[in-house]
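Today's session is about reading a structure prediction critically. Students often jump straight to the picture, but the first step is always the sequence itself: look for stretches that repeat, for charged clusters, for runs of hydrophobic residues. Only then move on to the predicted structure, which in these notes is written as discrete structure tokens rather than atom positions. Here is the chain we will use throughout the hour.
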Amino acid sequence: MALNYLQVENLTKSFGDKLLFEKISFGLFEGQRVALIAKNGYGKTTLLNIIAGNEQYDEGVVTFRRDIRTGILSQDPKYPAGLTVLQACFHSGNEVVKTIAAYEDALLCEENHDRLNDLIAQMDLLKAWDYEVRIKQILGKLKINNLEQKVEHLSGGQLKRIALANVLIIEPDLLILDEPTNHLDLDMIEWLEDFLRRSKMALLMVTHDRYFLDRVCSDILEIDQQQLFAYRGNYSYYLEKRQERIDNQNAELSRANNLFRKELDWMRRQPQARATKAQYRIDSFYELEQKVKARRDTGKVNLDVKASYLGSKIFEAKYISKSFGDLKILDEFYYNFSRFEKMGIVGNNGTGKSTFIKMLVGEVKPDKGSIDVGETVRFGYYSQDGLQFDEQMKVIDVVRDIAEEVQLGDGKKMSVSQFLQHFLFAPETQHNYVYKLSGGEKRRLYLCTVLMRNPNFLVLDEPTNDLDIVTLNVLEEYLQAFKGCVIVITHDRYFMDKVVDHLLVFHGNANVQDFPGNYTDYREWKEAKESLEREEKNSREKSEKKSVAPKTTTSSSGKSRKMSFKERREFEELEKEIAVLEEEKKLTENALASGTLSNGELVEKANRIGKIIHELDEKTMRWLELSEIEG
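Below is the predicted structure for this chain, in token form.
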């Protein structure tokens, strides 16, 4: 029977007069991978913060199983200034780090034999002996390679990746993640998917990455209308069953409306007959009235804003080059953009994606070449750093600062209040101050300010971050029908697949590939190409093994050479020395765990195990270098 790791019972939370959820209950069990879904501002992050102990709640009970280990990834992790990346990983205060520190302290005290024995057993249990090696491996996968860099010089995205590495390395029983895919490039997201699928950890997370949801999660929890709905299946199953639930609710609401009309007619009969009416029927009428008034708001976002006229000439990038020091972004790059083209831009962080579109909209100048933009082009630029509102302004005033009305084309207009309602900003929310909005609601407001200007060329840099799934779906539909041009940078593969018709792939070092298809097409092509390359490599290696010619390698001068006699002798000796060290390591670990050593012997063996691991690392690295020559 699966263990119950977390139990939430009758939980209620409100902010002032805004009720987020009321008397919700759920459990999370061993092996479950649960995603929490809701519209922005409906309480997803608040619920995670309550569970993590960082937020108060009105009523209810949150209970963890006493003996489980929990890892929590927050949206905005902080580290003290002055720490290096590696020091930050040992500053996290997790159980492994605390055990390592206690073990090192115990080594200095020869008197407490039992304490050291207990810590050695705990080090074994937590796999703490190779903690530093494993944290470096995970940081490498997350493309944090400069381990001596100070944390105050890192971006928010890099800090989030360090925090992600810190919670993954301890492999807790229960892992709580808030938007883990934000600030990860596509390779990192796919690595994280694979890591979590192979892990035995239970998982509770908030994410808007729908492919991630589909491939990782076993259960979906949805907060809707202050209630919690559970679905036993992945994202695709959730979509199907959610629609069934909404259809059933709508059918019930339709029946209630029909009954309400009949009862209303009954209630409106002559007042003098009111005394003869049955009290239970009067009470039932008022209950029915409340039910009809609380009709379902589907939250449909209507983005039917017309694009302004767009001529045949869009833009031509004429052999542009751009570098930042030794980092080369573009080199003699040429591209002629077509009318109504919808392009996706993908690539690892730091390869120049955002720099390219900043050159397009005129914020950054190329080192060489030029970008010739058509006269009719009107850019709508949604940038990563454009979310800068006066927090003390009201939502409606932010939009009114741009225009009093929104032009819909064909002489039609819409008031800014009507326009905001299409974006799920109810009249009462429109008069709230910006600081009261959630992160996702601010993103939605920013999107409003971009689209209401009637652009005919949308340039969207990471528009999917922090937007809820409802808004993402409607934005996708809008972009599919948009009568203009689109360039979008996003790590949301689902969004990319639905919107774009081809890609620019930034490989780094000014290598830019024009690929005719969406992201899934590109991924399938890339996997097929890599598979073919592996087959060709294996075929070459088999042919080389059959050859009697001596093995050679390429020297730094570019000429092939044989392994020298001295190197061959060193290579053979290293193999023997590594085998001896491995055996000594095994014997030493067994001795440490035996409980029969004296205090002095225990300290001596504990010091020796560290030296053995260091020697093994050095000799193995040298063996690998020589094995490259050996071929």
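Discussion point for the tutorial: The chain has five domains: 1-68+173-233, 80-155, 248-293, 315-516, 553-630.
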